Amino acid sequence: MLPARINSRRLEAGCDEVGRGCLAGPVVAAAVILPPRFKHLDLMDSKKLSESKRLAMTALIKKKAIAWCVCEVSPEVIDKINILNASFLAMTNAVRGLSITPEFLLIDGNRFRSELDIPFECIIKGDAKNGSIAAASILAKTYRDELMFKLHQIHPVYQWDSNVGYPTKAHRQGIRSHGITAHHRKSFRQLPEQLKLAI
Description:
Nucleotidyltransferase, domain 5, 199 residues, alpha/beta
């Protein structure tokens, strides 16, 4: 089982984001402060859990966490500041939204930048190594998946109920046939043909 913190005497918040590689929808980040000794068999990388287990863990994390927050950054902002900066902004806003200010941040990935005056450590594949980061990954994914399922009801041709905005064959076929929506990221290459040079 993953440890909730690196230093049990320090108020640590785990941070993770989801949706960076999508063609549509926001990028979503979560920040979670778990009790220092919180452990659970299903506290792991959200991608390794079934939907039912993610939902169960989401409810448990929200109940047991000292503090948690989920924030999204829209496609419009992603197009303006690029996806990397949008990911940093989403995580920053999630930390700012916590009811308690953490003393230290555990960031999933290899880099982070923000205006927060809080020390941090970046952990590559942190959602598979640390419970607080795993908890953040679960909250972020369940939030974003639910949002994309709702948008699918409005725009079913892109099959967001199954691909949640990622560049699958079905998603791209929907773009070829119907164009893009306000939820698509205009700065992203929507179709492979856009990679080809005009001769």
